[in-house]
Amino acid sequence: MAEQKTNVMRALDQKKVRYTPHEYPHGAGAVDGVTVAGLIGVAPEQVFKTLVTRGASKSIYVFVIPVAAELDLKKAARAVGEKSIAMLPQKELLPLTGYVHGGCSPVGMKKQFPTVFHET
C-alpha cells in the first residue's frame, strides 16, 4: 500500500526537505501527545502539539507547545496582542486548516496564520 501523504509531507517534499514520517494509531478516539511520543519511541520533551485558537478580534492564531503542556490562554493572548483567545472548536479545524484533531501541523495549513512556538 502506498504511503498516504499529509499536507506537511507534501510541503516538505516540494521544498526538498528531508524528514522521517512516524505513524501511530488514530481515529475517532484521539490519542494524546504523550502517548504518541511513547508509540513512536521518542521522549515527550521532543514532541510538540499544534493548537489553533481564535482571538477576541476573530483572528486565528497557532501555538506549538510541548505535548505534556497546557496552553495558558491568558499568556497566549498577551503573546499575540489579543484581549483574549479561545481554542478553536474542533468542527472548525479541518475546514480552516486542512488538518484533523490530533494530526495538526503548523506547516501545510490551507492558509498561513500567525504562529507562536514555545521557547524550547
Q: What does it look like?
A:
With 120 residues, the chain is of the alpha+beta class. It contains 4 helices and 4 strands. 26% of the residues lie in helices and 18% in strands. Strands 3-1-2-4 form a 4-stranded mixed beta sheet. Strand 1 (48-55) and strand 2 form a beta hairpin. The longest helix has 8 residues, at 7-14.
Share of residues in helices = 25-40%
Average pLDDT across residues?
Answer: 90
Q: Structural class given helices, strands, pairing?
A: alpha+beta
Low-confidence blocks of residues: none
Order of helices and strands: HHEEHEHE
Q: How much is the radius of gyration in Å?
A: 15 Å
Query: What portion of the residues fall into strands of 2 or more residues?
Result: 15-25%
Strand order of the largest sheet: 3-1-2-4
Query: What characteristic shape results from the CA principal axes?
Result: globular
Number of DSSP E strands: 4
Distance between the termini: 37 Å
Given the structure, what is the number of helices?
4
Keywords:
4 helices, alpha+beta, about 120 residues, 4-stranded mixed beta sheet, about 25% helix, globular, 4 strands
How would you briefly describe this protein structure?
The protein has 120 residues and is an alpha+beta fold. Helix content is 26%, strand content 18%.
Q: How are the SSEs ordered, and which strands pair?
A:
Blueprint: H1 7-14, H2 33-40, E1 48-55, E2 60-66, H3 73-79, E3 85-87, H4 90-97, E4 115-117
Parallel strand pairs: 2-4
Antiparallel strand pairs: 1-2, 1-3
